[in-house]
Design a protein that fits this description.
Largest sheet: 6 strands, parallel
Helix content: 40-55%
CATH superfamily of the largest domain: NAD(P)-binding Rossmann-like Domain
Strand order of the largest sheet: 3-2-1-4-5-6
Number of strands: 14
CATH class of the largest domain: Alpha Beta
Number of helices: 17
Bound molecules: nicotinamide-adenine-dinucleotide
CATH topology of the largest domain: Rossmann fold
Length: 442
Amino acid sequence: MKIGIVGTGYVGLVTGTCFAEMGYDVTCVDIDPRKVEMLSQGVPTIFETGLEMLLKRNLREGRLHFTTALEEAAMSCKVLFFALPTPPGGDGEADLSFVEQAARDLATIWSENERSSYCVVVNKSTVPVGTADRVRNIIEESGHESGTLFDVVSNPEFLREGVAIADFMKPERIVIGTSSGEAEAVMRSIYEPFVRQGNPILVMDERSSEMTKYAANSFLATKISFINEIANLCERVGANVDHVRRGIGTDSRIGKLFLYPGVGFGGSCFPKDVNALYRTAVQNDYEFRILDAVLKVNDSQRHRLSRAIIEHFGGSLENRTIAVWGLAFKARTDDVRESPAHYIIRDLLNAGARVQAFDPEAMDTTRAVFGDDIEYGKEPYEVLEGADALAVATEWHEFRRPDFEQVRSLLKTPAIFDGRNLYKPERMKEMGFDYVSIGRPV
Ligand SMILES: NC(=O)c1ccc[n+]([C@@H]2O[C@H](COP(=O)([O-])OP(=O)(O)OC[C@H]3O[C@@H](n4cnc5c(N)ncnc54)[C@H](O)[C@@H]3O)[C@@H](O)[C@H]2O)c1
């Protein structure tokens, strides 16, 4: 079966590559010619574990193609996945302009080239409830002369950056929103090889499927904000959030995951999706009070570490240099969209500090944001030289067991601000560090 992917970013590239790996003939479309050029040469445009090998193999074996021409996919593919950006708009609602433009372009191509065979258009982007109807209307209105038979399906994506290939190849569940039997059959057949172990394909109506994605992300973000609130209270009452986290996480009704306190949630999805769901509620005259609190807690938590650093140095960071370990919004990705590390760096710069930063994969993406406003090291210890303190902002494995003797000898003053609770407070104390972490006794 021929599959087209429209939008070849974090989701589209992984989706296209994994479908090709499963034997499908895949055409990936992107409007960015630089991306298309690089990917056609087998050079990944993002860092994702395992991606490069699959990309190269499927290019070599001829199952994967990259193009800027939507026509190539629009005319020949039985299924077209939209993996397009849905960034936050002015009020926090999802900006659907990329999705709507692609729908109009598709309708025009079908009209001009008279495609008659059936096609399933799939929204894989995270989109507000009602978007499948909207895309269907746009295609019908813009392409009223085309005569192409099509359905629009919702199929939200649940992959996690960093383990995206594994997630896509063995999804815990596939959610498909459609009221068309023909589209359901096509979608079931595409995903069948991915659920051989018995994980479910859940078929529902389009609106429930669209809501499922927002509900999932908002629930996970709520867990994070909840444990951050517990951590902040632990600090005031002398409790240790590490013990509390284990104490509650072992309850199967609660679960261990997403209970790590830290510097707030970031990334391209949680902040955007919680905001968008909140806006959906507002637009429907519903006050979603929990989401309002989740966002407010997160806004405050993002500044938790920088506040502690500024306080430690008496309210100003003039003539101070702070080393920052970690720039990506989480470990195992180069993605810095809404990264807590970037919020911390902005605060440090505003307070007058010089910043020397290191991340194993997110240096280029950070340079695109901060340019020369900060300095970049080639390895973690280099950025410690001459720094007054170390701030740890991302939980990369390589930051978990550093050579503390070396850390102490390189820092001007032995101060560590650990936004991910990577180290043991007692050990830090024994080694003579001033050590601040989240929700644990100093
Ligand atoms: N990144 C994630 O972890 C993740 C996980 C699940 C769902 N999602 C959702 O998936 C969607 C895509 O996210 P992403 O992170 O892959 O975004 P991205 O910004 O990495 O990729 C989007 C791509 O679409 C391209 N594009 C824009 N307009 C186009 C057009 N008209 N035709 C062809 N290409 C076009 C861009 O050049 C870009 O390469 C979003 O709705 C996001 O919320 C993302």
